[in-house]
Amino acid sequence: MLLKRLYESDRGGMILLAALLLAAIVVPLLNLAVPESSPFHLSTYTVTLLGKYLCFALLALALDLIWGYCGILSLGHGAFFALGGYAMGMYLMRQIGERGVYGHPVLPDFMVFLNWQELPWYWHGFDMFWFAVLMVVLVPGLLAFVFGWLAFRSRVTGVYLSIITQALTFALMLAFFRNEMGFGGNNGLTDFKDILGFSLQADGTRVGLFLASAIMLALAYLACRFIVNSRLGRVVVAIRDAEDRTRFVGYKVERFKLWLFVFSAVLAGIAGALYVPQVGIINPSEFSPLNSIELVIWVAIGGRGTLYGAALGAILVNYAKTYFTAALPELWLFALGALFVLVTIFLPRGLVGLVQGRRKPDRPPPRDETPSGETPATTGGPGA
Amino acid sequence: MKTLDRLREHLRRDRVFDFMLPKVVFSPALDTRHGPILYLEGVTVSFDGFKALNELTLYIDDGELRCIIGPNGAGKTTMMDVITGKTRPDSGSVYFGQRIDLLRLSETEIAQGGIGRKFQKPTVFEQHTVFENLELSLAGPKGVWHTLFARLTPAQRERIDEVLEIIGLTAQRHRPAGVLSHGQKQWLEIGMLLMQSPRLLLVDEPVAGMTAQETERTAELLTSLAGRHSVVVVEHDMEFVRTIARKVTVLHEGRVLAEGSMDEVQNDPRVIEVYLGE
C-alpha cells in the first residue's frame, strides 16, 4: 500500500532505488563469485569506480536538496564533501600505525617528516572509528551551521550567496595547502592501509565500501524524499518562489534555510567520507572551487528539483568523464562545457525533464481527499 | 547624529530599558477595550532626509473597514511596512491593541500575532496548488521540526474548505496557483491571510489590474470580512473606495490630511487641492 503510493508519486525515485538494489546484488556477485577468467567478471577497479560514482550521486543529491528545492545555489558544496573526507582520512591515517615509512607508532609520516614531536590536539580521538564518524557528521554540519547562520541572518541571497560559498571553499583550500595546518599540506592524506581492520586492498573490502555507498545513497534519498514531501518541503519550495510572502505568512525563513543547509552539508560530508577510502587519497584539491562548480553541472544536467535526477546526472557525467579522459583527454572540458550550455538552453529541466516529456514537473500528489465528487462550485465569486 | 539620537533614546527617563520589559505575548483576547485595535502615534520615517511619514497619527477601530487613499508618495505603503515590521520608524509608537508594542517584534512575530498583509503585487506560491497555498498559511506552530511531521487535522481541512468557499476558488483547489488569473490570485492571497485568522488585515491595492466584475466581487469579499476582522485597504481606485468605504483617511506627504465619510472627504477643500482634477 505504502510502496504503491510511493511508486505512483515518485516513479523516478523508485527506479533509482530499484537500480541501486539491483547493483547491490549484481556487482558483488560478478566481482566475488564469478572467476576472473570469465568474461562476466567485474574487476575490482570497476567496483571501486562505481562506488565512487555513488558517492558523487550522494553529493549531487545533497546539492539538489538546497538548490533545486530551496533555491540556494551553493558553489562551495565541495568543501563539506572534502571536510567529511578529511575526517575519514584522519581515521585511516591513524590506522596505519607503525606500518608507515618512518615507522612511528603514533605520528603519521608527514608529521615525522616535518619534525613534529607530538600529535596536534585535533588529531586525538581519530584512532577510534566512532569518533571519526561523529566528526564526519559534525564538522561539515557545524561549519554549515555557522556559515549559514551568518549568511541567512544577514539575508544574503542569490548570486551573492553563491560567491561567498565559493570564497569559503577557496579559503579552505588555501588553508589546507599549508603544512602548518597539520593535514598533510599539499599531499594530503594517503597511503591508507585498512579500515576497521579490513585491508583496503582486499576485494571484499572494496565490495563492502561499494555496498555501504549504495545503502547510504538509498537512505539519503529516502530521507530527502521524506523532507520534500512533508509540509516542510512545501515551505522550502515556497521560500524559493516567494521568500517575502513566506515570511509574512509567519515562517522563520532563516531557520528553514539554515537547517536544510546543515542537513545538506552533513550528507555531503558523508559522501566525502565514503569516497576517501575508495579512492585512497584526500588532498586540498578536493576543496577547489572547480569541483563545486562541476557538481552544480551534474545536478543541472540530471535535472534539478527531482532528487533522482541529480543522482542520475552525477553518475552519467562522471561515467562520461571516465570515458572521455581516457579516450580523448584534451576534449573532456570542452565536452563538459558544451553539455552544460546545451542542457541549459534546450533542456532546462535536465535529462529527467526530457524523459518526463511535457508532463508537469514532479510534484507530490494532492494532500487533500480525492478531487472526484467535488462540488462543482460556481466559477469564482467570493463573498457570495 | 543618528547615534546621538539613539543615545538619547536610551537615556529617556520616562521609560525603562527595553530588555527590562516583560516579553510580549499575543493573546487571543487582544485588549481593545478602548475601541481601537491599532494605534499609530507620531510615526516618522525618513529615507535620506525625505520624510515618507511625518508625525503620522492614526487609529483603526476593532472590526472596522478603513480605506486609506492619497496621491503617490503619500506614505501609504511605508505605513504598512511600519505596521508589519518591515521598516522601523525613526520615532513614534505603534501599538496593536492596548499593550503590544509592534516596534519590538520581528516581521514573523507580527504575522503570527495576527496582522496579515497583502502585497501590492499578488504574491502567491505559484508552484503550489491553491489548496497547498492555504495549507501553508494555516495558523498554528510554524517551526522547522513541526512542519516536518505536520499532518492536516479534520478541523484544519474544514477550515481550508471554508476559506476556499469564501474566496470562491473551491473549483480551482487542485490547480497550481501560477495558472490562476490575476483576480483569482488576489483572492487567493486574501484567503491566505484569512487562514492565519488575523485580527487585522492590511490590503494593499487589491483591485489594481482587475476587471470591473472582479472589482465588484472583491468589494463584496472585503465588506463581508469587516466585523470579524479589522480591514485596512490602501487603494487608488476612487470608485472602488466609494463602494466599500464607511470611513476614509486621506494621507498626504506622510500625514493625515482628512478623515471621515467619503462624502465629507470629497468635499474637503484641502483634499480637492491635493487631488486637483480628480
Kindly report the CATH topology of chain A: ABC transporter involved in vitamin B12 uptake, BtuC
* Sequence of secondary-structure elements of chain A: HHHHHHHEEEHHHHEHHHH
Give the CA-CA distance, first to last residue of chain B. Answer: 41 Å
Q: Beta fraction of the residues of chain B?
A: 15-25%
Largest beta-sheet details of chain A: 2 strands, antiparallel
The largest β sheet of chain B comes out as:
6 strands, mixed
Which sequence of strands runs across the widest sheet of chain B? 6-7-8-3-9-10
**In which range does the helix fraction of chain B lie?**
25-40%
Mean pLDDT of chain B: 86
* Rounded Rg of chain B: 20 Å
Give the strand tally of chain A. 4
**Class derived from helix and strand content of chain A:** mainly alpha
Tell the overall outline of chain A. Answer: globular
Whole-number count of domains of chain A = 1
Largest interface, Cβ cutoff 8 Å: A-B, 42 and 53 residues
Low-confidence stretches of chain A: 359-384
Q: Which secondary structure elements does this structure contain, and how are they paired or packed?
A:
The complex is a heterodimer of chains A (384) and B (278).
Chain A: H1 2-9, H2 11-33, H3 44-67, H4 77-96, H5 109-113, H6 129-153, H7 158-177, E1 189-190, E2 194-195, E3 198-199, H8 203-229, H9 231-241, H10 243-249, H11 253-279, E4 281-282, H12 289-302, H13 308-327, H14 332-346, H15 350-356
Antiparallel strand pairs in A: 1-4, 2-3
Chain B: H1 2-10, E1 36-47, E2 50-61, E3 65-69, H2 76-84, E4 91-96, E5 100-101, H3 107-112, E6 115-118, H4 130-136, H5 144-149, H6 154-167, H7 182-195, E7 200-204, H8 212-225, E8 230-234, H9 238-244, E9 247-252, E10 255-260, H10 262-267, H11 269-274
Parallel strand pairs in B: 3-8, 3-9, 6-7, 7-8
Antiparallel strand pairs in B: 1-2, 1-4, 4-5, 9-10
List its salient traits.
heterodimer, A: mainly alpha, ABC transporter involved in vitamin B12 uptake, BtuC, two-stranded antiparallel ribbon, 15 helices, globular, disordered C terminus, B: 278 residues, alpha/beta
